[in-house]
Amino acid sequence: MNVEKVEGPFYLLNDDIIKNEDDRKHPEFEGRTVYEFIRVQDGIAIFLEDHLERFFRSAAYLDLPLPATAESIEDRVYRLIAANQVEEQNLKFILGKTSEGESVLWIFFTQSIYPSKKYYEEGIATSLFRIERLDPNIKLVRSDYQKAVLQERADKGVYELLLVDGNEQITEGSRTNVFFVKGNELYTPPAQAVLLGIVRKKVFEICAKRQIPINETAIPVEWVKEAEGAFVSGTGNNVLPISKIGDHLIPTMENPVVQAIMADYAELVRMYKEENKH
What we know:
By secondary structure, the chain is α+β, with helices and mostly antiparallel strands. Strands 7, 8, 9, 10, 11, 12, 13, 14, 15 and 16 form a ten-stranded mixed β-sheet that branches. A six-stranded antiparallel β-sheet has the order 2-1-6-5-3-4. The chain is globular and about 55 Å long.
């Protein structure tokens, strides 16, 4: 049974805009599916090209043929944004096969809750959670993983969980990538161990321009006590500072490296919106 919550008056199935009605059945998929989230701000799908590149990579990994080119998907996305008259909300893509073996690309707006301004000004509380994601580089739909992290976040009363693997190393957030600051350098888990987030990619670009070294390395849990700053990055969160991991306070809000990256990312988004006005 499909539990996806489709928001708004219309969604897309392949190239068709469909009216979202209570009695209309949404597509049911057989086997594994891949997905992608894209944030729409001011009617612009932020970093759409980067998201599509990752989506096509995920589809190839599962040998799922996409019934569209990147250019035609971009056209569909903006048709859907216009039909729903959306200014700010998350789009979700799901690609899979029906029981008849047909490839279906389902694009729809989903419930979107973004961090409050307070979180950007004061930082978020996080907690460590010992769980590992299979195929971390690919966005696979896994309801068991999603249920586990939702329950743990609720139990601990935190905004985000930092995942810890069997080697007692922090790998990523439950829905984000994670970075730590020591001195004037950033430290983040290696690419092969994490989902390669689009905002993570933009953080690397920002640091290259600012000549801030980034070390891709294993992050032992003990590092939490030595961190001079920390933040997570993700489509729905942008660059979000961490003020607390478990009981340990992190002085992120006073850290100039984190503040510079946050400001630069906000400027990147502003410029992208300006260049992609429809």
